[in-house]
Automatic annotation (TrEMBL):
GO terms for biological process: phosphate ion transmembrane transport. GO terms for molecular function: ATP binding; ATP hydrolysis activity; phosphate transmembrane transporter activity. Gene3D superfamilies: P-loop containing nucleotide triphosphate hydrolases. The keyword Translocase applies. GO terms for cellular component: membrane. It comes from Nocardioides cavernaquae. The keyword Translocase applies. InterPro entries: AAA+_ATPase (IPR003593), ABC_transporter-like_ATP-bd (IPR003439), ABC_transporter-like_CS (IPR017871), P-loop_NTPase (IPR027417), PstB-like (IPR005670). It comes from the Bacteria. This is Phosphate ABC transporter ATP-binding protein.
Length: 264
């Protein structure tokens, strides 16, 4: 299959079912996350959004009791193909977490470059310097840190740390960036800066974001998927599609109730 590593990539989940032990938490969830778009995953707590996100870059299998059925296709290629290496899936599909997690004692520069070691990538000193600048610019942090690249990452504010984590994930040139409530630990100003960064990044990387903030989903996402797990049943997608349409004219009453803040 044609595989343009520099181009924008579509991520597609097909019939994903997930368990922790015998507890089924997702049931045959299918979703196409368009290339170069921002897809928001919304829904009440416990409906399986984070589990679904973790399945998209093979983090679910880190939990010993976790099981999975279905496929995840990056530009048509199954990331769970036994011939594919885990590290390749993780490099192509990066993740930013709820709580900023830079290496606190490492310098800002070393934080950005940290992923290169893990993926065994080597680069010259000047190539590394260029990469650090490029990723910090894309992460929306360059102007604030360019004069102190050797200061520890842990000395930055929460919002800056989160942008540092975004820059770090960009350094290995991912094709998809997964973000699990990336702003929930941040103040409104930092949140807006991250949202602007996301809108810029979407030109070159496909983004999937879990968010509890409906305004945020409306501001940043092109497409949206509403997850729901009815009492005692696994999570499913009730409705998905164009974000503006889903917020203004939801097809399902449960979506209407959720996006208007009537539950969850
Ligand atoms: N490591 C785990 N071991 C066992 N069960 C788990 C584990 N992680 C999640 N679950 C269960 O899977 C279900 C889905 O959880 P998940 O965190 O994916 O939901 P969520 O929609 O992301 O929730 P939230 O919005 O609160 O983060 C829940 O019933 C949860 O208790």
């Amino acid at each position: 299959m044609h595989h343009d590593v520099s181009g924008l990539a579509e991520l597609r989940a097909e019939e994903i079912t997930a368990w922790f032990g015998n507890h089924k938490v997702l049931d045959r969830v299918s979703l196409t996350m368009p290339a170069g778009g921002i897809t928001a995953l919304i829904g009440p707590s416990g409906c399986g959004k984070s589990t679904f996100l973790r399945i998209l870059n093979r983090m679910h299998e880190l939990v010993p009791s976790a099981q999975l059925a279905g496929q995840v296709l990056l530009d048509g290629e199954d990331i769970y193909d036994p011939d594919k290496r885990l590290i390749d899936a993780r490099r192509s599909i990066g993740m930013v977490f709820q709580k900023p997690n830079p290496f606190p004692a490492m310098s800002i520069r070393e934080n950005v470059l940290a992923g290169l070691k893990l993926t065994g990538t080597t680069a010259s000193k000047s190539a590394k310097a260029a990469l650090v600048e490029e990723c910090l610019i894309k992460g929306g942090l360059w102007n604030e840190v360019k004069d102190r690249l050797d200061a520890p990452g842990g000395g930055l504010s929460g919002g800056q740390q989160q942008r540092l984590c975004i820059a770090r994930s960009l350094a290995v040139k991912p094709r998809v960036l997964l973000m699990d409530e990336p702003c929930s630990a941040l103040d409104p100003t930092s949140t807006r800066v991250i949202e602007e960064t996301m809108l810029e990044l979407a030109r070159e990387v496909t983004i999937v974001i879990v968010t509890h903030n409906m305004q945020q989903a409306a501001r940043v996402s092109d497409t949206c998927a509403f997850f729901l797990a009815a009492q005692g049943t696994p999570g499913v997608i009730v409705e998905h599609g164009d974000t503006k349409a889903m917020f203004s004219h939801p097809r399902d009453e449960r979506t209407a109730d959720y996006v208007h803040g009537r539950f969850g």
